[in-house]
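tool_call: predict_structure(chain=1)
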Amino acid sequence: MNRMLLPVLAIIATLLVLNIGVYRHEQLLQKGSVVYLPLAPVDPRSLLQGDYMALNYALVRDVDRSLQQHAGRHWPDYGTLQVLLRLDARRVGTPVWVGTGAPEPGHDELRLRVKIVNGYRIMLPSHAYFFGEGEAERYSRARYAILRVSKEGRSLLAGLADEQLKPL
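tool_result:
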């Protein structure tokens, strides 16, 4: 009987951890603040993965430029950086500050966490958006990524939007 108890407890613990993660993501998608990030999409086709759009965020380019301008500062090789985004009237985010500890956001600002890899490569939650076969034309109009962002700066890709910020 004891030999069966340990595997059962391990399975229950694994499922509990996975479900907590799913719950946290669902809460972020439901309650997180909406921010639109400009992007320059490309539309490759992968034989193994189906149709998808590689997302090239303008924010990554801007943060990279900021890191290069402050090359004398020590940036972590791996971990997270904080980006302070200023939101316009349409909630389109523009980075105004990058560092390891963001100042408190103002009423028209939002904190966003980005991952830094190898001391220079910036990553957002997703760099690819997968869609059904035959939907390429619809998603080729994407000009913005729709992110949901928590108060702490955690974010998830919630969708894509066209030039008028209409979800696709």
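agent: Helices lie at 2-31, 58-69, 136-139. Proceeding to next step.
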